[in-house]
TrEMBL record:
GO terms for molecular function: DNA-binding transcription factor activity. InterPro entries: ArsR-like_HTH, HTH_ArsR_DNA-bd_dom, WH-like_DNA-bd_sf, WH_DNA-bd_sf. It holds the Pfam family HTH_20. This is Transcriptional regulatory protein. It comes from Maritimibacter alkaliphilus HTCC2654. Signal peptide: none annotated. SUPFAM superfamilies: Winged helix' DNA-binding domain. Residues 1-87 form the HTH arsR-type domain. NCBIfam families: HTH_metalloreg (NF033788). CDD domains: HTH_ARSR.
Amino acid sequence: MDILFLALADQTRRDVVERLTHGEAPIKELAAPHDMALPSFLKHIDRLEDAGVVTSRKVGRQRIVALTPEAFGPAETWIDRQKRVWEGRLDRLEAVAKRIEAETNPFPKDET
């Protein structure tokens, strides 16, 4: 999971992933919006491939890149687990805040 988060830590790579959610694309199309030399951009693609986020294949003279959605599974599981923990904590905090408000407010809200 560390390699996935490292791969996604860079805005250029996140932009590539975002674009690939719409379908595979050739390297030149992916590189076009980014102001960098092609060899530098290819390093970003290599980092994404190392993390398993994308795959690439040669088609004629082009290198086509595709997203590998299953690579996000472990991170999604971890994030969901963290979200449940924090939602539970926030729900308990809200309950405490409501109890304190009810105990200290001489004019409770009229609940109709």
